[in-house]
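Two proteins follow. First one:
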Amino acid sequence: MFEFVNDKTLAEYEAFNEGHPYGHFMQSKKWANLKDNWKWEAIVVRGEDGKIVGSLAVLIRHLPHMPWTLMYGCRGPVCDPHDRDTLEQLIAGARVLAKKYHAYVLKLDPDVSIEDKQFIAELEHLGFRNATGDGKNFEGIQPNFVFRLDVSEMKNEKVFTAPAPGEAFDISVEDTQGEAAIMHFKTDTRTKVRKAIKRGVKVKLCGKEMMPFFSKMMMETGLRDGFVTRPASYFNKMLDAMGDNARLYMAFYEDKPIAGTLAIYYGDKVWYLYGASANGTKEFDVRKLMPNYLLQWMMIQWALEKGCRIYDFRGVSGDLTPDNPLYGLYRFKKDFNGDLVQFVGEYDLVFNKPVHFAVVHGQSTYRNLRRKRFLKKNAALDTSKPKNLTGDHRGEKKEEPKAEKKSDAKPESK
């Protein structure tokens, strides 16, 4: 029988989610604390011994000016994906919540590979239908294609733990020689990591004091590559909500911030969540400093420090043709020799078909309008002249700037 999580069982729920192979930070109450415009509920199922064997957290939000709500179980459920009894009980609990909150749909996008046909059959048995369609880019709430690096067998002799506040990671080119993690990368990628060190790029763990700089770079990156970005207040709330599970990494050159990333550690994974680079100029070519390659290596070090199983580069396009505007993002992440994983995608359990139909057919129009308004409103702030000087996921075969290609069109997450 299912039960709903309350204050007394919250710690037990978090421990289960964090310790499960399918656990995810977006199923955590910590992440829900960032989403203050959503209601959070969680369902658990216990085994015969009284211990939790499955869970599903959902975020619930009203449609604007409407009595209906969207119920979203981001990256859930957390359980054995082939345990039909547990899955049935979790969805039975979700149906109770749907009635309580007048939900028109329960949307799931599980952290399960599309290769798991048995799990897909279980979802369909429960009444879910695929809502992803043929989209291969970033049409969903979360990316359907990600790059993941298995770090469980990477036994580095030296792992670079967090330095004192305000100090840079103490790392030399010699420290990169022969280590298991960096030797897994492609030769050219290892070279770029070392070039960043040689050219004087320093990486620091920073707090809110650097958020204005990171947010500004996010804006520059969004305008340069054509995606909507979030304000500094959102990133500050993320640091507050996730606590020690979140880190802001900043890359500096001659004490000037030139790139940054936000990473999340939870359970047996570290996720690369957001990344941004400052615009370069003809006189100061940020791309040549390779800061984003060094930032990636330092985030992977966090995964090694925590004994994680997975380092997740997050989303890429599923269209792997070189003429795809998002191909550069795929190539950048691929150069670290991770595995391309396609999830099962979004699955909807519809409770109100007319409302669901109307919302689905309005979402694409809304997203396109939102993106156009953002780019138009902030067009005057786009200082990327010339284009493509950011050193993150564009071509690196030549040192000269190249023509702009749109990239991380949805750096996520919702």
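Second one, unrelated to the first:
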Amino acid sequence: MTPAEAVAELLQTPVAGVVAVAADVFEVDLADGDLVVAKRHHRLGQAAAEVGGLAWLAEAAVPAPGVRAADETWVVMDQVEPGHPSVDAAVGLGRDLARLHAAGADAFGDGPTADAWIGQAPMANVPGRDWPGWYAEHRLLPYLRAAVDAGSLRDPAPVEAVCGRIGELAGPPEAPARLHGDLWSGNVLWAADGRAWLIDPAAHGGHRETDLAMLALFGCPHLDTVIAAYEEVSPLAPGWRARVPLHQLFPLLVHTVLFGAGYARQTVSAARAALSG
């Protein structure tokens, strides 16, 4: 089914035009002058996970696109007019993330759907009460095994050592935070309305430092401003900067699984940095 056919069927309205803006993402002009975004998913459960994740974010009153309609393949969302990063938007993003995290979750691994996705990698939302053990078991070891089995990561020892020492490396205990879960800079949409909108979540209950560490992983405009605004609302625990590599291990392992050995060296370096504290 084409994007035009899918949107026309889901919204029960004629479509005037379609423009591809990314792989499997389309801006769709409706005949009544409205504009929506249609996203095509290829794996069972991905569309439901995105719909649930966006709703979970919206419950915390952070900017996230509203879903107009969805089926097992397509998600049709409100279009957000793109803009440019600004200091004011970065301040708003920091405050929004603090509010999102404070909304909490019933457990680590709790989420809007049990079967979730981070990018194109499956992600199981399995509830747990103890963050260090849960993080090792459900966020590090599954992707480490997959990377090793694929031959993408040949030196698992540093990551295994992190998992073995996770209790002492994790920092002070924290309550489960409501996470975006895939918060690299590409999933922050700096919009024309002066706000930073969150898209493409891998939503689950986790440690709030994980979202912030991921935001730093591939660079984010005005990141220092984002962090400062976050801490004005919700100060981070002492030593959080030293724990950034620990929290970056999860997305780095996922990238090693999805994109190959090019990320293996960065993964091992992060594990060694986490061990050195």
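SUMMARY FIELD: The mean pLDDT is 97. Residues 38 and 76 are 4 Å apart (CA to CA).
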